[in-house]
Specification:
Largest interface: A-B, 35 and 39 residues
Oligomer: heterodimer
Helix content of chain A: 25-40%
Number of domains of chain A: 1
CATH architecture of the largest domain in chain B: 3-Layer(aba) Sandwich
Helix content of chain B: 40-55%
Strand order of the largest sheet of chain B: 3-2-4-5-7-6-13
Order of helices and strands of chain A: HEEHEHHEHHEHEHHEH
Largest sheet of chain B: 7 strands, mixed
CATH architecture of chain A: 3-Layer(aba) Sandwich
CATH superfamily of the largest domain in chain B: Thiamin diphosphate (ThDP)-binding fold, Pyr/PP domains
Distance between the termini of chain B: 53 Å
Number of strands of chain B: 15
Largest sheet of chain A: 7 strands, mixed
């Protein structure tokens, strides 16, 4: 049998804002997935032309190469402060930061806590991959107890090197935080849930409900010394235990949001 | 408009507001705090953003973000707080976005004290933040001059896409004296073509200080230096007093310059032919006038409220042609006019030399004090 008229339906398309170039990310790294989710959300909400991104320092320092939209690039850890400056002078714009764990939960802890406690109307995409990726895999505030990195070569010893920071839990205690959740990108189901959370974080800003942050558990196969598949399994088997997925803060107004 | 009795910090804040300040971000620190306090009331009144940041790091990066949108923005602080801002200042310089910084300098190093000093000269004039960049630095010697320079500072920042610092010592910030404030200016309407405003007109804007390609970074550095040459050409400002027939010249900026003027007048009454050169822009430094003076006067006395930081800039211009002496007070101590007068009389009486370093001679005269 020969089909004469093949029915076609477009079910998958690269978001226009997402530049079709090859990224600098390693094979198996989930930065690309997170970028894509943000790009899809911006297009679905129709806010690409009214959004300013704030890039941070780390592997995602070049995020602005992959998004055809307005961007600024912040000093290490200071993205929430820069985003505050932009949002306050352009309150009708949408402003988001995209930060890694070293950037946000170590050097930039002051700025993120300040922004959250002010209830700053920004959306924060927070990538937690349990190490400093760009500088070659050093211990991060999120490195798990016992985890080997280039600066914890015998495994993170919590007596000497302290405990991992549970960022979503910490920021959820602040009244200014309207929406703080942790999601993961280690399988398709979690990726879909992550996208929904990113959408919510932007809707929270659009409706002026307060500070919004989505923590995303991510893979770093190169620095973890694993294949992409092993890295996904490591997120599931090791990271989820210390960083449970969940909604840590959903303010009553956010709970009522209809998306 | 009539003159009113007003504190320096408050006057600068109100002058900035009237010059069309569109957003202010700051953090409390003595002796600067009244500036922040004044704007905490006035900016919301005018419907303009004011944020008391979590730290000076936060404040300078809020300024950075807002400056990237092309708005007229400023912050203010005092010495230890300005140290924390150095990272952001370097980024802002590297991104070529305009802003105004007010540094109400206090005694240091470290926590020091809250009394007036000029110990931040090197930090503000010769860098402080990393990498090759320069800031325009204006040094007022009275509340009125601080008011006048505030409006100018925004125009200069925008003209050169650069940082303009108003370097005031704590006494200018804290002193109340009569000053006339400028009339309220409307907010500027034009949006610079480089501003990040969201991708509205189909044109994408990216502002960053990163440049991984060394030759391209070098070109950027050269562009900044070329712009600095234009600033040196166009923006030198200073005030000369009794220079026409001067045989001796005191050089001092800000409060040290103002105190020195009293001493110069007292010396004139004693028949000493002495003048005062008071740089208003300490960066760009008034090299040309100093060079001309070095050709025709006998000797110089540099007076500062630090250990002789501007002294080095003076020596670079004078180049050993004439003797240079130094007198400084530090740590929050303001010199009295009669102390400066003593130094003038010592200079006139001699002996004078072009050998050695003026700072060494000054320190050796202080041996009893420092032990």
């Amino acid at each position: 049998m020969v089909l004469k008229e093949v029915p076609t339906e477009l079910v998958y398309q690269r978001p226009e804002v997402f530049d079709p170039r090859v990224t600098h990310y390693c094979p198996g790294c989930t930065h690309g997935v997170a970028h894509r989710l943000v790009a899809e959300v911006l297009e679905e909400m129709g806010i690409v032309d009214n959004t300013i991104g704030v890039a941070s320092v780390g592997c995602s320092v070049f995020i602005y190469n992959y998004f055809n939209m307005d961007f600024v690039e912040a000093p290490h850890g200071r993205a929430p402060a820069m985003a505050t400056g932009i949002k306050r002078v352009l309150p009708d714009s949408m402003v988001f930061t995209y930060q890694g764990d070293g950037d946000l939960a170590s050097i930039g802890m002051g700025e993120i806590v300040g922004a959250a406690s002010r209830g700053e109307l920004i959306s924060v995409i927070f990538i937690n991959n349990a190490n400093y990726g760009m500088t070659g895999g050093q211990m991060a505030p999120t490195t798990l107890p016992g985890q080997i990195t280039t600066s914890s070569p015998t495994g993170r010893d919590v007596k000497r090197q302290g405990y991992p920071v549970q960022t979503a839990e910490l920021l959820s205690t602040l009244t200014g935080s309207a929406y703080v959740v942790r999601r993961s990108m280690h399988n398709p189901r979690e990726i879909r849930r992550a996208k929904k959370a990113i959408r919510t974080a932007f809707e929270v800003q659009k409706h002026g409900l307060g500070f919004a942050l989505v923590e995303l558990l991510s893979t770093c196969p190169t620095n973890w010394g694993m294949t992409p598949d092993e890295a996904r399994n490591w997120v599931e088997e090791r990271m989820l235990e210390y960083f449970p997925l969940g909604d840590y803060k959903v303010s009553p107004a956010v709970a009522e949001l209809k998306i | 408009m009539a003159k009113e009795l007003i504190k320096g910090n408050t006057a600068v804040a109100e002058a900035a507001l009237r010059a069309g300040l569109e957003a202010y971000f700051g953090y409390p620190i003595t002796p600067q705090t009244e500036l922040l306090e004044h704007l905490s009331a006035r900016m919301p009144e005018m419907g303009r953003p004011f944020v008391q940041a979590e730290s000076e790091l936060g404040a300078i990066n809020m300024v950075y973000g807002a400056a990237c949108t092309g708005k007229r923005v400023m912050t203010s602080s005092s010495s230890p707080g300005v140290s924390l801002m150095m990272e952001g200042l370097s980024y802002i310089a590297g991104t070529e976005v305009p802003m105004v910084l007010v540094d109400v300098v206090r005694g240091g190093p470290g926590l020091g004290n809250i009394a007036p000093a000029q110990g931040d000269y090197n930090q503000i004039v010769h860098g402080g933040g990393h990498g090759d960049y320069r800031m325009l630095v204006l040094a007022p010697a009275s509340v009125q001059e601080a008011v006048d320079l505030t409006a100018l500072s925004f125009d200069l920042a925008e003209k050169y896409r650069a940082i303009v610092a108003i370097l005031m010592d704590g006494s200018i910030g804290q002193m109340m004296e009569p000053a006339e404030l400028p009339p309220m200016q409307p907010l500027k309407k034009d949006i610079p073509d480089w501003a990040v405003r969201g991708h509205r007109n189909g044109e994408r804007h990216l502002l960053t200080s990163i440049n991984l390609d060394p030759p391209a970074q070098e070109v950027m550095n050269l562009r900044l230096m070329k712009r600095w040459q234009a600033i040196e050409q166009n923006e030198v400002r200073y005030k000369g007093y009794y220079l026409d027939d001067a045989e001796f010249v005191v050089v001092g900026f800000g409060t040290a310059g103002r105190v020195s003027l009293s001493a110069v007048r007292a010396a004139r009454e004693k028949g000493i032919k002495i003048g005062l050169l008071r740089p208003i822009t300490v960066a760009p430094f008034p090299n040309a006038v100093l060079d001309e003076l070095a050709e025709r006067v006998e000797a110089f006395l540099v007076v500062e409220m630090n250990s002789g930081q501007m002294l080095e800039d003076v020596r670079l211009v004078v180049r050993g042609r004439k003797p240079v002496e130094f007198f400084g007070r530090m740590g929050g101590v303001v010199p009295f006019p009669d102390e400066v007068l003593n130094e003038i009389e010592r200079l006139v009486k001699g002996p004078r030399t072009t050998e050695g370093h003026p700072r060494d001679r000054w320190l050796s005269r202080l041996e009893e004090t420092i032990g």
